[in-house]
Design goal:
Blueprint (H helix, E strand, L loop, with lengths): L11 H45 L6 E4 L4 E7 L10 E4 L7 H7 L9 E4 L17 H14 L5 E6 L2 H11 L4 E7 L12 H6 L4 H8 L1 H17 L8 H5 L7 H21 L10 E6 L11 H7 L4 E5 L6 H4 L1 H11 L6 H11 L6
Parallel strand pairs: 3-4, 3-5, 5-6, 6-7, 7-8
Antiparallel strand pairs: 1-2, 2-4
Helix pairs in contact: 3-4, 6-9, 12-13
Length: 361
């Protein structure tokens, strides 16, 4: 008789226990899935609700104009009869909108020039457009088209921070539209140290989409005031800055992700393009601060000055990353100088330094 293994007998009890375990596991998985969906739906809904609140804080003051397959938002101030300056186009920085330069420069330059304040593609109320708008040269092209739609031939290009990379590209690819250049604390060159962790996460295909919807609005709202303070440091933040510029707009999911993509793409872009800055021939002034902890002057402003022949570099002692607000009078004097008016920029610089000497102490 051949040898056989032990008989395996499935009893009704074994089957019932096994089925019970499967049912418990299925219920547990269903519960966890439901909780996950609830968290996602709640976060998504809260984010959408917050986005509506952010936009409701201040109505859009601009006009959406087609620039070739997508629309850009801008505020156009027509040339007044009293104008004594060329047209001026303002390019805002990262996490910003047209409200940032508008709040700083509209009043000081009122009645003196035709002005164009714009939301860069994918920020403020401008639509994103195609993938080329994730890079400074694509955004420069869109701005050139917007100028044409607004009837502006040439202008003084005033840029801040990230906007500096776009302005430099604008001067390279659209020199016929450039009267002169004013760079305010520009980001234009490769830098050491990389980026904050959330930029990489936010631009990821799937994770970034959810991160920008579940995290950006609620967490960003809590950290916004502190973040703005660090941008201005060591100088004081104007009391009405957050309200007047509606900084919350940058926390809307699409804008948050577009901004992160722009910033994440910048390093490789400026590494490739910065060697060409020597081709820029437009009259140029670079205004920066020696206490800028966001965009280091010795990396960006200094190298930009060295690359652009005939440019003037103004470094203000104890000035942080916001010369557009902390040294508005000096920036206006620089615009006047670029327009050919005699201005003592050294004296204007000393006046600003005296005014902010005690900031941060």
């Amino acid at each position: 008789m051949p040898a056989t293994g032990p008989d395996i007998v499935e009893t009704p009890g074994h089957s019932n226990i096994f089925a019970m375990v499967l049912r418990l596991l299925a219920r547990l998985m269903l519960l966890l899935s439901s909780l996950a969906l609830l968290v996602i739906a709640t976060g998504y809904g809260y984010s959408a609700y917050q986005s509506g609140l952010f936009e409701g804080r201040r109505k859009n003051e601009g006009e959406l104009i087609d620039v070739g397959g997508f629309r850009m938002n801008s505020v156009h101030v027509p040339r007044p009869a009293t104008a004594d300056l060329p047209p001026i186009v303002f390019i805002h920085g990262a996490s910003g909108s047209l409200l940032d330069p508008l709040h700083a420069f509209l009043e000081p330059l009122s009645g003196r020039a035709e002005m164009l304040f714009l939301d860069r593609p994918g920020l403020g109320y401008s639509e994103r457009g195609g993938p080329e708008n994730a890079f400074p040269d694509g955004q420069a092209r869109a701005i050139a088209t917007l100028m044409e739609k607004r009837g502006i031939g040439k202008a003084i290009i005033v840029s801040h921070s990230f906007g500096g990379a776009i302005a430099a590209s604008f001067a390279l690819y659209h020199p016929e539209k450039v009267e002169a250049m004013l760079f305010l604390a520009p980001a234009t060159h490769p830098w050491p140290g990389g980026l904050d962790w959330y930029y990489g996460i936010t631009r990821m295909p799937f994770v970034g989409w959810w991160f920008s919807r579940l995290i950006a609005a609620p967490v960003g709202s809590l950290l916004l005031e502190k973040g703005v303070g660090s941008v201005f440091a060591p100088n004081e933040v104007p009391a009405d800055y957050i309200e007047e510029t509606n900084t919350f707009l940058a926390l809307r999911p699409a804008a948050f992700r577009n901004n992160a993509t722009d910033v994440a793409n910048l390093f490789d872009y400026v590494t490739r393009v910065a060697p060409r800055y020597r081709e820029i021939e437009a009259p140029t002034i670079i205004l920066t601060g020696d206490r800028d902890g966001v965009v280091y002057a010795h990396i960006h402003s200094k190298q930009l000055h060295e690359a652009i022949a005939g440019s003037r570099l103004i470094t203000v002692h104890n000035l942080g990353h916001k010369p557009d607000y902390v040294a508005t009078d000096l920036a206006v004097a620089a615009i006047e100088t670029l327009a050919g008016k005699p201005r003592d920029l050294d004296a204007a610089t000393r006046a600003v330094e005296a005014r902010i000497a005690g900031d941060g102490q």
